[in-house]
Q: What sequence folds into this?
């Protein structure tokens, strides 16, 4: 039975991608055997989900398919939670300072969520949400 999930994500430049994600608060497992010159395991959340960043040429060879052109469409939207509205605001500031772009600034969604959406330097889209469950059905 499946025990873990790794998300493999192509990046144009591994070092600059590591720098970007580190600046916005993500961590990398530098002791992992998966941490090489071609790939780096980024750890997300308390469940330690692994997003493996792959240099594009290495990813394409491994995947046996051409890469999606993120300037023309989205292949996925990565969503992750925040503990507070302020954490969402801070993430938005950090993303812009680190060189990312906002596609949706911090705002309320459906009366019970507060979030923002950003594009990393490789064109991948990310969404951070604070969910106030006490307001969900109210």
A:
């Amino acid at each position: 039975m499946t025990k873990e999930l790794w998300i493999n994500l192509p990046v144009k430049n591994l070092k600059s991608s590591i720098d970007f994600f580190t600046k916005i608060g993500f961590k990398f497992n530098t002791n992992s055997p998966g941490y090489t010159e071609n790939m780096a395991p980024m750890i997300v959340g308390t469940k330690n989900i692994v997003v493996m960043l792959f240099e594009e040429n290495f990813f394409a060879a491994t995947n046996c398919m051409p890469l999606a052109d993120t300037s023309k469409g989205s292949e996925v939207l990565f969503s992750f939670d925040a503990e507070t509205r302020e954490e969402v605001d801070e993430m938005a500031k950090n993303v812009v300072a680190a060189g990312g772009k906002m596609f949706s600034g911090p705002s309320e969604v459906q009366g019970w969520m507060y979030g923002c959406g950003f594009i990393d330097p490789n064109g991948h889209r990310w969404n951070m949400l604070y969910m106030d469950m006490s307001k969900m059905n109210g």
Remarks:
- The chain has three helices and eight strands.
- Helices lie at 14-23, 56-63, 85-98.
- Residues 4 and 133 are 28 Å apart (CA to CA).
- The chain has two domains: 6-63, 77-135.
